Amino acid sequence: MRLDKLLANMGYGSRKEVKGLLKTGAIKVNGKAVKDAKLHVNPETDEVSVHGEIIEYKEFIYLMMNKPQGVISATEDHQHETVVDLLEIDDAIYNPFPVGRLDKDTEGLLLLTNDGQLAHQLLSPKKHVPKTYFATINMKVTEEDVEAFRKGVTLDDGYVTKPAELTILKSGESSEIELTIVEGKFHQVKRMFESRGKKVTYLKRISMGALPLDEELELGEYRELTEEELSALKDKKE
Ligand code: URA
User: Residue 58 — very low, low, confident or very high, per pLDDT cuts 50/70/90?
Assistant: First the structure.
């Protein structure tokens, strides 16, 4: 890979800006100052440093976030804070984007990556990647609801949902449930309960495909996926 491309990918500016940086002599490859932007380097074996700091090159980044309420699942928003605003600069330089959307008032598992192929696979309707949510509901959830969700319910726009698995954790004036769906229509969980005349009062995603939310993560915190988590996620998409 060309040195200027590697440095640009790592967030050291545009190719033009990187050229300027090279001219200053700040870049060393295997300990020797280099000014040639076109020099080919092997990110696996060559040691590249900027102002004496060795850079660890990686093409893709995979982050698991425990999304808090009040932030938007987008890379940019004119009015509100986005999930990308919560990232440290060292992670943001990879330009990760959220894989799918959680509503502003939904909490929980959100994957962010710059790996477009993986994101596409996880979001493709054909792949039926299961997503599990924990929710509280404003009234009693019954076995009839379980059966209705298993068969599929008709949403306000006439769409009939695919079979979904509803587990009642606590049923009463306010109920607690887990719901697994294999699609991702706009506001799907809320609209499924609306079709039963019920309202979601709290919603949190607790898993996506083979990836459960790390409950150690506080709201707004995130971490990189482990190798195991990443390969489990990739295996499941095939
Ligand atoms: N379903 C919803 O209604 N909202 C979400 O954020 C995710 C699924």
Answer: confident
Task: Looking at the structure, tell me whether residues 136 and 193 fall in a common domain.
Answer: yes
Q: What is the CATH number of the domain that holds 37?
A: 3.10.290.10
Q: Are residues 178 and 81 in the same domain?
A: no
Verify that 201 and 215 share a domain, yes or no: no
pLDDT greater than 50 at residue 227: yes
pLDDT, tens digit, 9 for 90 and up, residues 109-150 = 999 999 999 999 999 989 999 999 999 999 999 999 999 999
Does any ligand 1 atom lie closer than 6 A to the CB of residue 189? Answer: yes
- Our answer on whether the CB atom of 22 is closer than 6 Å to any ligand 1 atom is no
Q: List residues bridging with 178 in a β-sheet.
A: 134, 167
For Cα atoms 192, 194, 197, give the angle at the middle one, nearest 5 degrees.
125
Residue 197 belongs to a domain with what CATH number? 3.30.70.1560
Per-residue pLDDT, 236:
56
pTM: 0.85
Residue 106: CB within 6 Å of ligand 1? Answer: yes
Atom of ligand 1 nearest to the CA of 192: 3
Q: Which residues are catalytic?
A: 103
pLDDT tens-digit map of 200-221: 999 999 999 999 999 999 999 9
Atom 4 of ligand 1 has which residue's CA nearest to it? 187
Residues 174 and 137 in one domain: yes
Domain that holds residue 49: 3-54
Per the structure, the count of domains in the chain is 3
Cα distances from 151 to residues 10, 95, 159, 201, in angstroms, run 48, 40, 13, 24
Q: Are 21 and 6 in contact (CB under 8 A)?
A: no
The Å distance, Cα 81 to ligand 1 centre, comes to 18
Position 55, amino acid: I
Structure tokens at 138: 């404003």
Ligand 1 centroid distance, CA of 135 (Å): 10
